[in-house]
Amino acid sequence: MPKKAISVNISVLRDTIIELELDGAFPNRMALYVAVANAYNRNYKLIKNKLTQSIVRDRIKKNNIVVKTPLGTRGGVWSEDRKNKQKTLMKEGRKNAKAKRIDFKKYPEKKQYLEDLRQITPVNHRGLIESIRKGSIADAIKLNCLRCLGYDRNLVRDCTDNGCALWVFRPYQMEV
Ligand code: SF4
Q1: pTM confidence score
Q2: I need a labelling partner for 76 at 20 to 30 A (CA). Which of 18, 67, 153, 161 fits?
């Protein structure tokens, strides 16, 4: 059954953004989306369907809502030099991920962990579990990042949390 789109009151969303940005812009868009989602859920009392940062991002985009907070360096236009540096880092990351592949056959006790992970993973991303079962660290990182940001690959691509140890290995970086 197709997922029902979460209904968002755009005028409340707009007012929430204006109110939150009254004292100025946020350090980055991610911080804005999180603050807006929290404030909206608190004020608008969405009981069943809580607004997430990825929905905030989507509705801002779809409704052309003007925000003060800049996209930040991760969402900006990438220079060739920066793209090449990023490519090199990703290549290194992939190389390391392959070198550290885990043979799960040696760890039968981890089977239950994979089954639990499968249960909490949306159906359309369960292919990654099979890949993790075969020992792919790259796909474990991919699933972790997707889960971190509501399974929104654009948010993962634009993730600005470079305090996260996985930031340099996160997927979708070159889809700019
Ligand atoms: S890099 Fe870290 S903070 Fe960013 S999406 Fe991945 S897990 Fe989340």
Answers
A1: 0.51
A2: 18
